[in-house]
From TrEMBL:
This is NAD(P)H dehydrogenase (Quinone). SUPFAM superfamilies: NAD(P)-binding Rossmann-fold domains. PANTHER family: NMRA-LIKE DOMAIN-CONTAINING PROTEIN (PTHR47129:SF1), QUINONE OXIDOREDUCTASE 2 (PTHR47129). Residues 7-182 form the NAD(P)-binding domain. Gene3D superfamilies: NAD(P)-binding Rossmann-like Domain, UDP-galactose 4-epimerase, domain 1.
């Protein structure tokens, strides 16, 4: 039974393949990528696969039984891209699609939610068995800013006192591998988030503790945060998106206390402190 992973050379895709190889034969894993040369180190079969090019996608999915559709990274284009993939999967006879959606996509105010909901609806109408992994925030979405925060002497954002139930990217990757290799997953929707939650002030406090250097959290009005991000070279549209996600976090859209992720993993999710420690070690 062959399992294919889209976006296999991306940050999440690589980790999923790493975890899948612990649970099944590498010979049964297919990496679907835009550039097969970049997949040479994955140790699995690689096939050319471009979300934007509907022609040829079904051919690339030949012989695939299960497909992990990792949501694309081109915000605004994903509804159409994912529709191409789902149509191709149906044509190729894929039996089961697992999709990485967004935590509480059906009620989230995050700007990312509508495209995820559209993809969920397309899956439900496809006639293909599906499982939806509504992934919460990756802790790395925030710890990726640590280097700049240390240089600036503060961690900035617009999330107020919003509680964030994040987990490491590896936690979500392992969950995907478990679902892909477990029976009776059809029709399930998982709301996946970290076991514990924190505010960005809590994150800054943990960073301060580990660095033994005061790194306060500066909570900014949304537009001010946008303006600061632009001074760092972030394009305006993306800066607005980042600030908007923080505003949604302030509304509770990144909080969940159901512990579905740790139940699926059979272990606690990775604590914030551990991901901060790992990030600092890599600087």
């Amino acid at each position: 039974m062959k399992t294919a992973i889209t976006g296999a050379t991306g940050q999440l895709g690589r980790l999923v393949i790493e975890k899948l190889k612990e649970r099944t034969s590498a010979a049964d894993i297919v990496a679907l990528v835009r550039d097969t040369e970049k997949a040479a180190d994955l140790g699995v079969e690689a096939r050319a696969f471009d979300y934007n090019a509907s022609a040829g996608l079904a051919t690339a999915l030949a012989g695939v039984d299960k497909l992990l559709l990792i949501s694309g990274n081109e915000i605004g284009k994903r509804k159409e891209q994912h529709a191409h993939v789902i149509a191709a999967a149906k044509e190729a006879g894929v039996k089961h699609i697992v999709y990485t959606s967004l935590l509480h996509a059906d009620r989230s105010t995050l700007s990312l939610a509508p495209e995820h909901l559209a993809t969920e609806e397309a899956l439900k109408n496809s006639g293909i068995a599906y499982t939806i992994l509504r992934n919460g925030w990756y802790t790395e979405n925030y710890t990726g800013s640590i280097s700049g925060s240390l240089a600036a002497g503060a961690f900035i954002g617009s999330a107020g006192n919003g509680q964030i139930s994040s987990a490491s990217r590896l936690d979500f990757a392992e969950a995907a591998a478990i679902v892909l290799t477990s029976p009776n997953q059809e029709g399930k929707i998982y709301e996946l988030a970290g076991d514990s939650s924190y505010t960005l002030a809590d994150l800054a406090a943990e960073l301060t503790k580990q660095q033994d250097k005061d790194i306060p959290y500066a909570d900014l009005p949304e537009q001010e945060y946008v303006d600061v991000l632009k001074t760092f070279g972030v394009p305006e549209t993306f800066a607005q998106a980042i600030a908007g996600w923080d505003v949604s976090a302030a509304k509770g859209d990144l909080f969940d206390d159901g512990k579905a992720l740790s139940k699926l993993l059979g272990r606690p999710t990775t604590p914030l402190a551990d991901t901060i420690k790992e990030t600092l070690a890599g600087l």
